[in-house]
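Q: Could you fold this chain for me?
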Amino acid sequence: MKILGVIPARYESTRLPGKPLADICGKTLIRRVYEQAAKSSRLRRLLVATDDERILAEVRSFGGECVLTSREHPNGTSRVAEAAEGCDADIVVNIQGDEPLLDPVMIDETAQVLAEDGTVPSSTLCVPLKDDGAVRDPNTVKVVLDLRGYALYFSRSPIPFVRVKTGCPVYRHIGIYGFRKDFLNTYVGLPATPLSSAESLEQLRILEHGYAMKVAVTKAEAGPGVDTPEDLEAVRLIIGSASGV
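A: Sure. Below is the predicted structure, expressed as structure tokens.
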């Protein structure tokens, strides 16, 4: 099974412009993500898909593979699809470009879901959520699953609503996605849908069009991502403390 990893990296960011090139204890954010992803045991090939020559130059400077893509993509998955064109791959894993503490096990788990079940077109991960504040936080995306592990719904709202305590878990969605390559091309061509637009969650478009996404509960620890200057400082502290910087 040929598995391709693609890290979409856009220069412009509303909350943190130039985010992929932000310095984190002597290395850029995109380099840290790339080096973590490269530790995956399942990837045959790894590349960055960007819209900016500065990111292209940075990735190539540390020996990474990078391709320049259109500036017109509406989301990261669309950019991943362009980068994957012409690549010899059965499965494409969309690896978020703002996760410098990424555990490479998560890449392996995402790909494994598709490797084990040939009927599943897409996959992602989740982790049990026990913080009541995070359950109510609209920036923390939740997912509910059926008994086979397929996603029923993703939401920024608290789901499920626990009226009766039965031990039913609340899961936080982790934004890493696996696609069969042929389905990836299908997905990016699907029209926008009401729920995905209302929640601003692109993965809902898969469910609304009647396709399936299987969700594995990760065994890895999910570290914080970088969306804001405050996130960046928090990650610098974590990495700096771990490395003695």
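A (continued): The domain at 3-243 is CATH 3.90.550.10 (Spore Coat Polysaccharide Biosynthesis Protein SpsA; Chain A).
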